[in-house]
Amino acid sequence: MSSTWKTPSRRRLLKILAATAVLLPQVSLSAVKRLLPANKASSDFIEHNDLPLALETLRSAFGQGPITAISQFFVRNNLPMPESQIIADRDLWTVTIEGAAQTADLTTSLSLAELKALPTTTIAGVLQCSGNGRAFFDHSPSGSPWGVGAAGCALWTGVKLSTVFEHLGGARTDARFITATGGELLPDGIEPSSVAVERSVPIDKGLDDCLLVWEMNGEPLPLVHGGPLRLLVPGYFGVNSVKWVKRLTASVNESGNKIQQSGYRMRAIGESGNASHPSMYRMPVKSWLNGPGADLKTLPPGRHQLFGVAFSGERGIDHVDVSLDGGASWQRANLYGPDLGPNAWRTFSLEANLAEGSHLLVSKATDTAGESQPEHFPANHRGYGHNGWRDHGLAIEVSTQVMAEQRPVISNTDTSIVAAAGVSSMEIDRVSDKGGLGRRLFVETASPPCSVCHSLEAAGAKGLIGPDLDTLKPDARRIRTAIAQGVGAMPAYAEQLTISEIEALVKFITLWEG
After folding, report:
1. Are 387 and 297 part of one and the same domain?
2. Domain count across the chain
C-alpha cells in the first residue's frame, strides 16, 4: 500500500506534534526521578504536574498488546495522594456503606478483608481522563494539556457493588444514585465540598457493572492508582472511578460537591458549569495510532506495521479504518488480539508502504452501535471528551537518512520550551515582589488563599494540595487560565477577583521577558 499524499501543512503537523512531544518543556532526569512513583520511568511519560501528580503515557510507550502495564499507566490525581501507610496492611482498609436496606438510615463498615470474602470478578476496562485530547483544542482550555496518553486499559479484580449491597440486604428502594467518596486528607481551612473528590453515578449503572477493585493486572492495586481500594465505573470517564474509596452511598440525590455539581460538565466556552450541563459519564468511540514513528522517531522508507487502540464505553468496537492520506481514502484495519469485552480497548494494525517525507496517519473507529468517530470535535470550556480523528492523527517523518536519536525526557514542569519547526522559545524568570498586591492576594485576600494549597517560596507558602509552583514554574498563560477558570479541585476566581488583581497574581508568580 503506497501513499502519494502530499506533505501535510506546517500548521497541522505543529498542532499534532505540539500535543505529543515537540513543543513540550524539558526537565532533567534526576529532577523527575525524585517525583515519580518507584515503578514509573521518566522516559515513558510526560509530566504535567508534580502535586497533584499528572503523568501522561508517551505514545511510543503504550506497546502493541491490549493491556497497559502498570509501569506505563497514566496518572491523574485531583488531590495529593494519601500517605503510603494505608497500603502497609491493605486488609485493614475499611469502607463505610450507607443506604443499604439492611441498615436503613444507619451506616455499616466493611474491611477490605471482608470484601475479599465476597464473590469476586475480573474485567478488562479502559480508564481515560475526561481531558484526554485537551492539547488539540485551539482555545487553550485550563488543565493539563493531555495528548493521547491520559488513558490505559487494565485488568481489574474486585467485587461488584450489587454484590456488596445484596450482602447488606440490597440498596434502599428509593435510591437514584451511587456516590463514592475518596479518602484524600484535606488541610484545615478547606471546605470539603469545594475540593473533595466525591462522584455520583446513576443507580442502575452503579449496580449493573461497577466494582470495588483491589487488584490491577493481577497485582495489589498501587497507591498511585487508588490502592488499596478504588471504585471502577466501566465505560465511564476516569473521574467517576474514585480512588481510595472511604464511603459508598446509595442515595436519592447526587453528591452536592463541586466536582459533581459544576465540575466535569460539558459546557460551551465561557459558561459556568452547573447541573444542567451533561456530566462526563460514558466515553464516546475513539481511536488513535501509537506507532511506529511516534515521539519523533524517524522511520526508514518501506513497509511498516501500523498499530493502535480503539474503544467505546459500554459498547466495544466493530471495526477501525486507517487513512494514509489525511482522510481522503480509507483502508480497513485488522483487529488483532483478544476481545476483552465492551469496556476494554481493541488493538488494531495495518501494513503500509511509507515513502520518504512527512505523513499524517489517522484512524477512525466505529463501535457496535454504529457510532463512528467524527472528523472534528466541538470546542468546549474545559477541553473535555475530544475524539475527533483528525487531531488524534500520528505525525511521522520517513527518511533515508535515519539517525539514531535518544528520546528526550519530556515534562511540562520546567520553563524552557523546545524550539521546533520555526517556533521560538521563551524563558520565564521568577519574581518575588514580596510587598506587592500579588503577594497579598496569594497569601490572604483570595478565598481560599492560594497559599493554603500551593507552595511558593516568594510567598513563604507551603501548601499541601496544589502543585509546588517553584517546581512547576507554570507560564503566565497557564496561571491566568487556571485562576480565571479553575482546574481540577482548584476553584475559579474570576467572580471574586478583578482583571487587574488576576494580573497582579500572575506577575507575582512569573515575569515574562524577551
Report:
1. yes
2. 3
CA distance 125 to 203: 20
**Domain limits at 62?**
10-69+283-411
Are 278 and 385 spatial neighbours (Cβ–Cβ below 8 Å)? no
> Where do runs of H (alpha helix) occur along 81-225?
112-116, 161-167, 192-195, 203-209
Q: Which amino acid belongs to residue 12? A: R
Q: How far is CA 271 from CA 262, 277, 493, in A?
A: 11, 10, 14
| Cβ-count burial 469-507 (b if 16+ within 10 Å, e if not) | bebbbbbbebbbbbbebbbbbbbbbeeebeeebbbbbbb
Residue with cell 519530556: 410
Name residue 190's amino acid.
I
* Contact (CB, 8 A) for 20 and 420: no
Task: Tell me: pLDDT of 139 over 50.
Answer: yes
Co-location of 407 and 292 in the same domain: yes
CB-CB contact of 228 with 93 (8 Å): yes
Q: Are residues 381 and 463 in the same domain?
A: no
Best CA proximity match to 224, nearest among 71, 373, 361: 71
Q: What is the rounded average pLDDT of the residues 352-362? A: 96
C-alpha cell at 507: 506577575
* Mean pLDDT to the nearest integer, 466-476: 77
Answer whether the bond into residue 284 is a cis peptide, omega within 30°.
no
pLDDT tens for each residue of 430-441: 333 434 787 778
User: Hunting for cell 521518566 — which residue is that?
Assistant: 42
Tell which residue, 428, 439, 432, 488, has the closest CA to residue 458: 432
- What is the rounded distance in angstroms from the CA atom of residue 211 to the CA atom of residue 160? 4
Q: Are residues 291 and 404 in the same domain?
A: yes
| Predicted structure pTM score | 0.77
- Mean predicted confidence (pLDDT) in 330-338: 98
> Of residues 105 and 331, which shows the higher confidence score?
331
Q: Among 40, 55, 35, 265, which residue's Cα sits nearest to residue 146?
A: 55
Nearest CA-CA partner of 206 in 161, 245, 236? 161
Output the pLDDT for position 438: 78
Q: Between 487 and 319, where is the model more confident? A: 319
The mean pLDDT value of the chain amounts to: 85
Poorest-pLDDT segment among 176-190, 194-208, 460-474? 460-474
Give the pLDDT of residue 360: 96
Largest CA distance in the chain: 72
* pLDDT confidence of residue 209: 95
What is the CATH classification number for the domain harbouring 434? 1.10.760.10
Q: Does an H or E element contain 193, and which?
A: helix 192-195
106-126 per-residue burial string, b: 16 or more CB within 10 A, e: under 16: eeeebebeebeeeebeebbbb
